[in-house]
Design a protein that fits this description.
Strand order of the largest sheet: 5-6-4-3-7-8
Bound molecules: 3-methylbut-3-enyl trihydrogen diphosphate, magnesium ion
CATH class of one domain: Alpha Beta
CATH topology of one domain: Undecaprenyl pyrophosphate synthetase
Structural class: alpha/beta
Largest sheet: 6 strands, parallel
CATH architecture of one domain: 3-Layer(aba) Sandwich
Number of helices: 8
Order of helices and strands: EEEHHEHHEHEHHEEH
Shape: globular
Length: 243
Amino acid sequence: MDTTRHEDAALGTAAPIVPACVAIIMDGNGRWASARGLPVAEGHREGTRALRRTVEAAIDAGISSLVVYAFSTENWSRPSDEVETLMEILSETIDRELPDLARQGVRTRFMGRRDRVPGWLREKMDALEALTAELDTLDLWIAFDYGGRAELVHAARRLVVDGVSADAVDEDALAERLYAPELPEVDLLVRTSGELRISNFLLWEAAYAELVFTDTLWPDFGEDDLQAAIAEYAHRARRFGGR
Ligand code: IPE
Ligand code: IPE
Ligand code: MG
């Protein structure tokens, strides 16, 4: 299937281009919960249902790579019970939602630091990556203990460890040493919940991403919101610095 273009049968014209790589900052779980008088954990739990819907909608839309921001390097500063809950929720998601998505051909990988995640969770992350390694309907990256600055530091360290000389350091050499070198350039970056910032997500990979901000809180996000973001993307003129 051609995943980059939708043919508009009625008009016979090549219609909007679907972004190949979409990144989402899944924000607003806390506000969703507090608006309902619920504990924040319930907002995060509902957020996993939104993730499931969104991955399925991304497959239907013909998106090939999806990167979602689930836990930032700065999120460790939250109260310890919330951090613990977020670890448990990732574990539940690996047990419940992601195997269902694997049946639909979703290959899941994690990007971020692995050394600070509890060992029992790291094992589950590794196992899911191995289990889905041959799948190719959609590539899903879950950014967990991820920070764009930490990723660039990681890449810089690897340049040194690999003994790359200063003259040989170029964009390709650095990009090859990011957490997920196979991740394509981000075409569309969506942030939910009305916040207008990047919060340390994909500083390198999203250099020329089109940005779409929506007021929808992440737990309410679904197919319509994804379609709306894609429609907005389709109207953008991408110039990459050219004329
Ligand atoms: C996003 O929701 C999830 C994480 C950052 C882990 P938040 O928990 O940040 O929700 P708000 O921003 O407080 O509403
Ligand atoms: C960004 O959201 C991180 C994730 C969605 C995982 P935050 O809620 O942590 O970001 P800030 O604090 O509003 O910038
Ligand atoms: Mg937030």
